[in-house]
Specification:
Elements lengths: L8 H60 L4 H6 L4 H17 L3 H10 L5 H17 L3 H7 L6 H13 L3 H14 L7 H10 L4 H7 L1
Helix pairs in contact: 1-3, 3-4, 4-5, 5-6, 5-7, 6-7, 7-8, 8-9, 8-10
Length: 209
């Protein structure tokens, strides 16, 4: 047989078998590892989904406990695995405490929330600042909102300055708030009334915008 003659079937089979004997274990191992990785990823996905559902269920139970006025609701909130759910539950508890007339407890609840991002921190600070204004702690409220420039934060800052008798500062804050507030916002009319109460004119804020 010439050196360049094609291999017959027997020789081809022998070479394939020899290759498998040398590389078969590695090949099978690679396949097994690949399948294990795929299976592990699917298991992790199912696990994460199950955990998310469990977190949502625990959150709903905490909200029900808040509405029912359960005494152990704080420990229930602390037991939430998801920080986002814990933050939302804290806001709900503070709102319930305000509805019940216990602003002092609501302040304590809001102070206990540890926001995980800047947006949640802004919501917590604004709600806390409102309660501080009502409690006669306007300076603390202003300090809490230092640097905040949303319409809501500016309005609350204006409320704090008004409560402290700083009419010029309150007018400036209200005017800035109007320039940032959506023209269709249901709060806009109330804000315009606040501005007029401290000697401002809504048209002035529109000119500045």
């Amino acid at each position: 047989m010439a050196i360049d003659d094609p291999l017959d079937e027997h020789e081809q089979s022998e070479r394939v078998l020899a290759w498998l004997r040398q590389n078969g274990v590695a090949l099978v191992g690679g396949i097994v590892l690949g399948l294990a990785a795929i299976g592990g990823w699917k298991w992790w996905g199912h696990h994460q989904h199950a955990e998310a559902l469990a977190d949502a269920d625990r959150y709903q139970k905490v909200i029900s406990a808040i509405e029912a006025g359960d005494a152990d609701v704080v420990s229930r909130i602390d037991g939430l695995q998801s920080n986002v759910y814990a933050e939302l539950a804290g806001l709900e508890l503070a709102a319930k405490q305000v509805r019940d007339g216990d602003n002092e407890a609501a302040v304590a609840t809001l102070r206990s929330i540890k926001p995980g991002d800047s947006r949640m921190a802004a919501v917590v600070d604004q709600r806390l600042a409102r309660l501080l204004v009502d409690a006669g702690k306007g300076e603390e409220a202003i300090g809490l909102l230092q640097g905040a420039d949303t319409a809501m934060a500016l309005e609350v800052r204006g409320d704090a300055q008004y409560a402290l008798g700083k009419m010029d500062d309150a007018r400036s804050a209200y005017m800035q708030a109007l320039t940032k507030m959506d023209v269709a916002s249901p709060r806009r009319k109330l804000l315009e009334l606040k501005l007029m109460e401290v000697g401002g004119k809504p048209d002035d804020s529109e000119v500045r915008s």
